[in-house]
Amino acid sequence: MNKAVLTQTQPDFVEVDCSPGQEGKRFVLVVDDSKVQRKILTAMLKRWGFQVAEAASGQEAMDFCASNHVDFVLSDWMMPGMNGLEFCQAFRQLDRQGYGYFILLTSKSEKGEIARGLEVGADDFLTKPVNADELRARITAGERILKMEGELQEKNRLVSATLNELTELYDMVDRDLMEAKKLQQSLIRERFKDFGAAQVSLTLRSSGHVGGDLVGFFRVDDHQIGIWGIDVSGHGITSALMTARLAGNLSGRSPEQNVALEADENGGFRLRNPADAADLLNTIVMNEMETEHYFTLLIANVDLRTGKVVMCQAGHPHPVIQRADGSCESVGTGGMPVGLIDAAYYTDFSVTLAPGDRIFIPSDGVMECPDPQESLLDDEGVRDFMVMNADRKGEKLLEAMITHLTEYSGQKDFPDDVSAVLLEFSGEDVHRPEPTG
User: Fold this and answer.
1) Can you tell me the distance from the alpha carbon of 74 to that of 43, in angstroms, rounded to the nearest whole number?
2) Which residues form a coiled coil (predicted)?
3) Contact 184/205 with Cβ under 8 angstroms?
4) What pairing do the DSSP bridges indicate for beta strands 3-7 and 358-362?
5) Shortest CA distance to 346 belongs to which of 312, 380, 395?
6) What is the bridge-based pairing of β-strands 72-76 and 27-31?
7) Contact residues for 111 (Cβ-Cβ < 8 A; gap 6+)
8) 132-176 per-position pLDDT tens digit
9) Which of 143, 332, 354, 396 could form a disulfide with 318 if both were Cys (CB 3.0 to 4.6 A apart)?
10) 324 domain residue, yes or no
């Protein structure tokens, strides 16, 4: 409970309890150098149920307001020392909790003077001598404003509290997503692998914390490898969870779970036709995964001895074959995405690489990267990039691709996940058997 003692020009003083909202009453400060005027106004206000304090000067009122809560101020304009206008201006500069409604009491009627009062912060005016009915009406109007201000403050408090809770929740989710991004990136255990006759490089860059793209490779034996790229529909957590599931279906570390492999008669594993692998994945998604997501796929079997690459394209962008002389062509049959319909049908096609040739398998985040005018890079743009960077190898080519996409789009953050597989065939198979005869 705050106690305020206002010293009058005479020895007497007024002591009041000015705790805000006591018994639901508004607090009014009456400021006038006339003791008679103060007593008249105070009597009316108390009769209407207000808490009231008095001050005999502007400076005395300022001292009071600096340490006490005031809802209303009724201040005379003409006072010695700090007048009502100067007091109003100083009152508005106080660091207050809540709004204070300020009514100037004046005999002035000139529009210019009234405008000046409004400019410094007065809310209303009353002409002296004060009429009780008019004062009550002005106070009632002020109460409506204070009530609305109080309701707005409470709503702002609730909004601020909710925002703080949401910020804490967002920070927690953001930390979890950062960890999820690390886990998703860890699905690609190696970004580069030298298989002797061929080298495989991978890149993956999500448009958000986590994404729906994933790329990989696996060794079957000394002369055969598999490479693949997938792009799950949508973005974010659900797409990332699906890629994690699919990574297990194409893992070289668990050949018994890898749909691209099948058991052979010797108790080992051999490559399954890519089209059959795509069909098996489609069956798994349609029958075992309760999801609206589907994905595009490019899966390829690579023979390191002959350079023959057998591929299945299931809705994934066309791979680009770049020959040793730098020339490029897009190949593929298109095909249906995996997990979209039960009756999807998949076919194989093949290419043969000569030493110095390579295959570039991009996701649609590469092909559909837009420039500022919304023109897409597309197949031709990818081929042009490959031609311009024919001398770049492995991971350096993939780094150049990210730089190229950044420059093409004019932004560092791409609208879609970006991933790619690069297979470079050297033909130098260290496991090639020695010729006989």
Assistant:
1) 13
2) none
3) no
4) unpaired
5) 312
6) parallel
7) none
8) 999 999 999 999 999 898 888 889 889 989 988 888 887 777 676
9) 332
10) yes
